[in-house]
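If you are new to this repository, start here. Below is one unmodified record pulled from the training split, so you can see the exact layout before writing a loader.
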Amino acid sequence: MSEDPNGGDGSTPRGQRELARDPSAGTSGLRFESHAEPSQAALEHGNTHLVERRHLRIGSGPRFNQLIEAENFVALTHLVTDLGSSVDVIYVDPPYNTGMQNLGYGDHALRAGADKHSRWLSFMEHRLVLSRQLLSARGVLYLHVDENEAAASTLLCREIFGENNVDVLIWPKTDPRFDQNRVEKPPRTIKLVHEYVVACFRDRDQVALNQVLRPVSRGSEWVEHPLELDSILSGWGTTSSAKDELADVFGDRYRFQTPKPMRLIKELVRAASGRESVVLDFFAGSGTTGHAVMDLNIEDQGERRFILVNNDEYGICRDITYERLARVMEREGYAESLKFLDVRIERKQPDGGTTGGG
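And here is the target side for that same chain:
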């Protein structure tokens, strides 16, 4: 992180305003309160380990994907120790800090009156710092946000990854080609038809993105064509088509309120991964990233491995994430295996040993 604008080393509490101009520096920067993680004390006095729920295992390997049911800060802390800098792609679709209730993920849990932006930024900073440690030298992180935190999250990513290692992409979330079942909401003022994907590179100079497949118009037909990834992520599905995908799996478009289309994530993974890459999603939601990785492996005979992390708020991890993966693995015949895991924290003892806890 950059130095504290007030002259500290960055470890002191940040200013009360979430985004402010520092007159002494003559530039814009983020200033926000740092909020401790609820699990921080337990992690400082304990060691983490994974425990498998063997009765939920699918397949027999030898290459296992992982679905981890845990608070994601705890899971990321464990993965940094377990994996080091070996992850090529991280897709992050966090709560948008809208204050909406009943999203099926704790978007409302971060609200704290006028302090909500500060809390969201602190929440994300802790997770993005760990994410950067997990990325390989060629690694790319995609952070999916909407207009509520697009500007602040871009500045935050520039502080963590470096000014020259961040790009901002635009995803049109509506498209008549995909929106046969779309239910329109009346706009308050301006109709919002796009969201943002902040692309963060561990080291841009080490990254050579692959071409992606994009539908190109050929008269009355749309033909898939290999193209370079550009800043407009069009042609890869919408919020409405993502709900259609859920309906195809569960028979219910509203089983999860905020899914993303599989094709969007599939092409982002294609752009940044090799055929044996590790792909991480620590806000796994309905499991779209795992579905996309398996589908891409079928397409190019890849051996990518995914790690998905979800808490179990509202039963999401077991009833939606796992269930979707299990159903599509059986239906599509994906030659994949999956372990369902929990993260446990064991308290450190004075003699260096551990005892059960967490």
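Two things worth knowing about this chain: The first strand starts at residue 19 and ends at 22. The two ends are 30 Å apart (CA to CA).
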